[in-house]
Amino acid sequence: MNGKVLLVDDEPHITRNLVKVIPWSMLGLEITGTAKNGVEALELMQADPADLVLCDIRMPVMDGLELVRHIRKQGLPCEIIMLSGYQDFAYTRAAIQYGVKDYILKPIPYDELTGVIARVMSEQRNKRLQVKEEQRRLGRMIDLASEKVLYDVLMDYTDITPDNWLMAAQEQHLGNPRYTLILLDIDVGSENARDWREWPDKERKMWNFAVCNVLRDTLQLAGLLHAVIQMRDGEWCVLIQSREDEEPVGERQIKAWTELLLHSVQNNAKLKLQAGVFSKQAAITELSFAYKTVQRGIQLTTETVPFTIFSGEQTGGIEAGRALWDIAERLIGAMKRGDAAGVDEEQKRIAEQLQQAGGSAEGRLKPLLHFLALHLMRELKEADLLPPGQEESLWRKMDMRLCVKDLFAAIRQASSEGAARSTDKRKQSERQLADARTYMDRHLFRDLSVEEAASHVGLSTSHFSLLFKQSFGETFIEYVTRQRMEKAKSLLQDTLKSVAQIAKEVGYSERRYFTKVFMKYAGQIPTEYRAALQGSTASASDEEPEE
User: Fold this and answer.
1) What tens digit of pLDDT does each residue of 104-118 get?
2) Is the C or the N end of the chain the one with fewer CB within 10 Å?
3) In the chain, how many domains are there?
4) In 3-state terms, the chain is what percent helix, strand and coil (to 5)?
5) Phi, psi of 170 (to 5 degrees)
6) CATH number, domain containing residue 77
7) What is the secondary structure of 120-185 as a DSSP string?
8) Are 353 and 320 spatial neighbours (Cβ–Cβ below 8 Å)?
9) Are residues 11 and 120 in the same domain?
10) For residue 151, with 0-12 CB atoms within 10 Å meaning exposed, 13-18 middle and 19 or more buried, which class applies?
């Protein structure tokens, strides 16, 4: 698209010459208007803003310098080149003060003017590209931060309320967001997944990353506000966001979105997935329930359909499966904690469920037990409690279509050994977390991700997040933000550094965003906090508007 040029001069022959002599098309520009004075020019600019203004200084009604002053005051984004028949330093100085790019004396040297225009517009285009790239990077940083918060919410690692200081500047732009939750999962028990589970870990990680990118690109092209969070190996949660005041998303639209995502992954990542959808749009406080409902539904369903909608209100035959699932969730939790007694207790409860089912266990509960065994294997692997040799052994057993007794024996053996390994790893984990916290404290000044901290101590992201919450009583983001805010408090109290400098020192490239987080955390904006501590007004460098 060509840039727009406005010519402003009270001498018609100069305007005609500028139109004819300057190779506008070659410069990527087109003349969209001409004016005889500043008043006419302002009217044209307000109706159709120009990228470049060539303006005479001395004109009737409103001269060039007054026009430039109005343009800058109104914040109209354009570059300005002044034309004048007077070699007066006072004019030049005033033009420079108003941000005029260059000053050309009449009679106009058209070759020189062409070169000046080319340079000015090249600088403008480069600046716009740089701003666009910075906005893209900042947007992705905010997306990643939001995804980290949403992961903790989905896993029920943290409570999010509307006034939570971690959500500063995130929730306001959409009011009260509502989410359509779509869970995409590889059916690890299917023939389609056999090749996938035999891939080396490095190849599987690359594939997981590729699927995330496919999902994000698909949603981006569809123009949907979204987040894609990998929950565990081969499982992704897609959240499509809308405002509370928008019309509810209908089942037909949700079906279209889900089919689009499944089709895109199959075409681009060459793997068939299954999907589950929560039946209604969920508020952020309902996401954990929605995720667990859909995850459980996918794991326990015996239907072979591309996707299913789950409401969490199913009754009848599914109740026994839900009871087994609840027991399995407690079993997995006890196993990860290294609670051998808790593991033993939940194993007994599974046995009781099977005994109560009696002869129907083989037909009715066997498929559910098979799914639970697969779910347990994935959780063991995600928690790094499943050695490769045992994983291969369990996969072979699953492929043999074991009877209920053998399936239960496999579950009992895997969970008992997992609990034992978890106990052995507890002391190692304590050392790893202490190392991670030291590493985090040393790198608060820059963008620090949970993936980086987890990788530093050799843990998976999800397992690291779980251990961190269990050990320190707060999530990774809560800890990092609290440490940054406390350090900011110290810097505000003990130094004369500006708020912008302090923001950068504690890891925030955007001063405005830092101020919002600090306000949520401390109840005051940084300058007010400093003034209250020092009993004096803040320095001039800090007195710019906070909002």
Assistant:
1) 888 888 888 899 889
2) N
3) 4
4) 60, 10, 25
5) -100, -45
6) 3.40.50.2300
7) HHHHHHHHHHHHHHHHHHHHHHHHHHHHHHHHHHHTT-S---TT-GGGTTTSGGGSSEEEEEEEEE
8) yes
9) yes
10) buried
